[in-house]
Amino acid sequence: MKEAIKKNKKYIIIGIVIIILLLIGIAFAYLTTTLQGDKEYLVRAGTLDLVLDEGNELTLEKQIPISDNEGMNLNGFSFSLVNNGKIDTDYTIYLDDMELSEGESRIPDSSIRYSLTKNDETFMTRNMTTMGSNPNRRVDFGTIAPDETINYTLKIWIDYDATTEEASGKVFKGKLRVVATQPVGEPVADVLLADSSNNINTDDPEQTFITGENPNNYIWYSGKLWRAVSVNNEAKTVKLVTQWNISAVTYNESGNTAFEGSYMEEWLNDATVDGFLGNLRDYERFIVTDAKWNATMMSDISKPSESTVVEDPVGLLNIYEYQTSYRGTNYSNGYLNNELYWWTLTPYSTSAVWSVGNYGNANSSNPINSYGVRPSINLKSDVKIVSGTGTEDDPYRLMGDNDEDLLDAKLNTRYSGEYIKFGTGENNLYRIISHETRGLTKITSAEPLKENDSFKTILFGDSVNYSSSNIIGDFLNGEYLTSGFYMNSEQLNMIEDNTIWYLGTINNGSNYKLAKYSDITMREVAISTNAKVGLLRYGELMASQINIAPLNTSYFSLTPTIWSVSGNGYINIHSLSVPNGIKPSLNLKSNVVITSGTGTKEDPFEIELSN
C-alpha cells in the first residue's frame, strides 16, 4: 500500500531536496515569471484595456503536504484585474501548464489543493482537478465593469493525503492566462421574463412565477437539467429545481418535520462528496449561498407566513411554490409534475411533511419515508444565458458552464450528472456520479440494464450484504464485464480493477450517512466489500435518478436491508426472493479522457484511455 509523505519519515528528512523543486515549480518560476513577462492575454474586443497587475510572490511555508487549515494560512499570491476601458468586459482566468525542465515530473492536479479569494469572498478549498484540466483549467470568470478593479488571492498547497508516488520529487509549473471578450448573453431573469410562452404570473408581490404546462424554462447546469420556477422581484435571482429526482432519502426521523436540522437539509447542503452541494459545480460563483427558504408549517397550500425561514445554499420547493407553478391548469399537467414521488420543503404538521405524488397530487407523508429529492437553488442575478432556447432538447446554457474544446480533458475533472457514451447497444449511456476515490470517476448506467428492449431482472442473493460472489455481484463482475453484450474490450480496460463498496445498514428514519459510515460523525466508514463493479448505495447521487417517468421496473441499491428504487422514484425495502432491476456502478481510471461531446444527454462525452 502506498504511504503518504506525512507518514514517511525518510521523505521528511530529505524534504528539502524535494521542496526545492516544489518551490521552484510552484512559487517563483510559476507566478513571478508569469507576471513579469509571460502572462498571456487574448483580447477580442475593440475598446478593452484589461490589465493583470502582479502582487506578492506565492510562498509555501511547509516542506511536506499540509492540511487545508494550514494551506488557508499561507500568504498566497495576490493579483488584480483592472478594466481601464469603456465597456463591460467578460473575462476568464486560466492556469495553464508551463513546460517542465529536463528530468522533471509533474505533480498531478489531484495532489494539489487550492483556495481563491475574490475581493472579500473566499471560496471553499478544493482539489485542483475541479478547475478542469489543462488547457481548460479555469481559475475564475465573470464580468468586470469600466474602472472596476477585482482583487484576487490564490493559495496553492500539496494535499495532506498526497502519496510518495504522487508528490515526491515532482513539480507543478503554470502561468495565468486571461481571455477577455465583449459581453455575451443576458441575465437569466431577463431572458425568462421576456419569453411570452412562460405564462408569467405576477400575483405574488415578491416572486414572479413561471406557470403552465410546458414553458421554455429548461436550464442545464452542473450536469443536471433544471426548471426555472420564479424570479425574485427585487434581487432578480432565479429559483431553479431539478427536472428529475437526483436521489431519494428520508426527510427526517419520526415525529420531527422541521426542515432545519433535518436529514434532508443536511444531505442537500453536504459539501463533501457524499451530498449534493459538494458535487455542484463552482457553486459560490453561480448560486446564492445565503438563500432564504420558507419552511413554515402549513396545513393547506396557501402562501405561508415567514415564521420559519432557514438560510442555506440549497433547499426544496415549498408547497406554495409548487401549487403556484400549475396555476391556471390542472396539477397533473403542470410542468413540475414529473410523475415521480418527491419531497417538498413544507411541514404539514408535527408528524407529516408535504410531498408530491406521481400524479402531481400533494400529499401529507411521514418524514421517515424515502421519497425522491429535487434540489432547489437560487441563481445569482449576474449569471447569464449564453445559448439555448429553453426547451428540453435545447436547454439554456449558462456562462461559465458551457465548456467548449474539451478534447483530451480528463474525465475526472467533470461533474456529477454529465452523460457519457459508454457500454454497447441499448445500454450505451452512463452518467457521472462523483469522484469519491482520488483521481477516479464513478459512473452508473443512465437507466437499469436492458435486454431486447426489456429491463433485465435478477435475484440479489441469499444475503443482504453485497459481494462479488452473490448472485447479482457474480453477474456484474462476470457476465456483465465479459459477455461482450454490455460493453466492448476497450471500455472494459477503462474500468478500475478494484473499488470499495460500503455496506452500512439503513433502517426507516435513518440518516443517509449510515449507508457509508458507522455513525453520523463520519469518523469511521461502515463495513465494506471490494469488487470491480457494484451498485449505488442509499442516498448516493443518481440513486433514484430517473430520466423518464415512470419506469416499468425498479432496481436494487447496494445498501442493506436491500433498499430498492421504485419506478416512481422512491426507495423501499425489497425482498431477497423477488428479482429486481440492475443499475451498475463502477469507477473509470484516472487516465480516461474526453474525445468529443459536451456531457448533455443529447451530446454525451465520448471517451478513451490516454497513453
Provide an overview of this structure.
With 611 residues, this protein is α+β, with helices and mostly antiparallel strands. It has 3 domains: 5-181, Immunoglobulin-like (Sandwich), CATH 2.60.40; 187-379, no CATH class; 403-609, no CATH class. Helix content is 13%, strand content 30%. It has 11 helices and 42 strands. Strands 11, 12, 13, 14, 15, 16, 24, 25 and 26 form a 9-stranded mixed β-sheet that branches. Strands 2, 3, 5, 6, 7 and 9 form a 6-stranded antiparallel β-sheet that branches. It has a 5-stranded antiparallel β-sheet with strand order 27-28-29-40-35, with no helix packed on it. The longest helix is centred in the first third of the chain and has 24 residues, at 15-38. It is globular and about 65 Å long. The protein starts with 8 loop residues before the first helix and ends with a strand. The model is unreliable at 1-47 and 56-63 (pLDDT under 50).
